[in-house]
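PROTEIN–LIGAND DATA SHEET

This sheet pairs a single protein chain with one bound small molecule, nicotinamide-adenine-dinucleotide, given as SMILES. Inputs appear in the order they were entered. The predicted three-dimensional arrangement of chain and ligand is reported afterwards as a token string under its own label.
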Amino acid sequence: MNITIAGAGYVGLVTSACLAEIGHIVICFDKDTEKIEDLNRGWCPIFEPGLQEMISRNMGEERLFFTDQANLAYEDADCILITVGTPQRADGSADTTNIDQAALDIAENIQKDVAVAIKSTVPIGTNERIEAVILDNAMPGLTVEVISNPEFLREGSGIYDTFHGDRIVIGSSHERAARIVEEIYQPLAIPVLHTDPRSAEMIKYASNTFLAAKISFINEIANLCDLSGANIEDVSTGMGMDKRIGNQFLNAGIGYGGSCFPKDTQALEQMARQNDYDFKILRAVREVNDRQKQTLYRKAKNLAGNLSGKRTAVLGLSFKPNTDDIREAPSLDLIRDLLDEGADVVVYDPVAMEKVQRLFGDKISYASSIDEAIERAELAFIVTEWKEIKEFSLSKYRESMKTPLLFDGRNCYSVKETEKHGIQYVSVGRPGVPDTYTGSRPTDAF
Ligand SMILES: NC(=O)c1ccc[n+]([C@@H]2O[C@H](COP(=O)([O-])OP(=O)(O)OC[C@H]3O[C@@H](n4cnc5c(N)ncnc54)[C@H](O)[C@@H]3O)[C@@H](O)[C@H]2O)c1
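PREDICTION REPORTED AS:
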């Protein structure tokens, strides 16, 4: 079977490499010529653990090809998986322009019957609409069946998730296309759930927004722990032991970011509005997250006062560890707040520095290591829990910083350990931290 993947982003590249790895012949198409040139030169344009090696291996064994030519990509395809981006519009809704463009390219170039699966996250009803767009513009007489096949991989563990997913959802009113797509994934031996297309589209939004809600909920509990003297770590552990709740997504911190949760939450909220439905929880999830992103900054202001001219290290820039993706990353909000205060900001991340540099240029400084970033700093913020940041020796903060004042947005260290090292340590929802909202400090704080 000839498989074409439209879009060489985080989802498209991981899916292309993994499908080639299980023996399929895959052509990955992207309209971004520079990206395709990089890939054909053997350079993977994104950081995703194991991806560069998997792409190189499958290109070498002639199962994986990259092109920016729509005709080469689509004319011979039996199955097309669409993984193009669906960014957020100003009103919060999902922008499906890329999907529509892919549909027109497909229509113009296909020469035979084809199954098309939309893996991108799209508003309810998009699959049906896109099938009509392709059929209206394709050569008459061709059978084109569009089905929904939402993607659930997580950046940073995309390859693992593709091979070990909890479920594959196929939303289809076409038996033949559903069978073709199920056959493609069959070697992965992952349970398949068949639904109608609209339910499949909704499963994706419902899953992502539920997870976002879980994060905002635990962050609200953490804020209340800050105010009441409880410890969020113990609270999360106790909650997570309840099988009905589960122990994942209960880590309090400075909020979620990334290319999915923020935009999918807003898109579902917008879809609800279009249906004259007030989705109250979703609005709260988003508002809580927006406030949470400022938590550390507010604590810093409470504790350190005027930040103007203070050398301030920001450690970890990507929206989570093991990715270079900085879309909606909490680090960006923090950097902006610090710059507004006139702080002298120096940043470090193992892989996301280049992308941040494109945004902030020479407004901030870029360190090549944690050591360099915290040298002579008066404050340091941990924003992303990269392994090297989590495991960085506490004694070095004491030795290198001008004043060892550490704000930890990911609760990487035990409070007791930081006390032993004589570090002023502020985290999220654990005792001994200043109250975020009133500015008053618990008596035993510092
Ligand atoms: N990133 C994730 O972790 C993740 C997980 C699950 C679902 N999703 C969803 O999958 C979709 C893709 O996300 P992503 O993060 O991979 O996006 P991305 O921005 O990393 O990549 C999208 C790619 O599509 C290309 N593109 C745009 N229009 C095109 C067209 N007409 N033809 C061919 N290529 C085109 C772009 O050039 C880009 O390379 C989104 O809908 C997203 O919500 C993403």
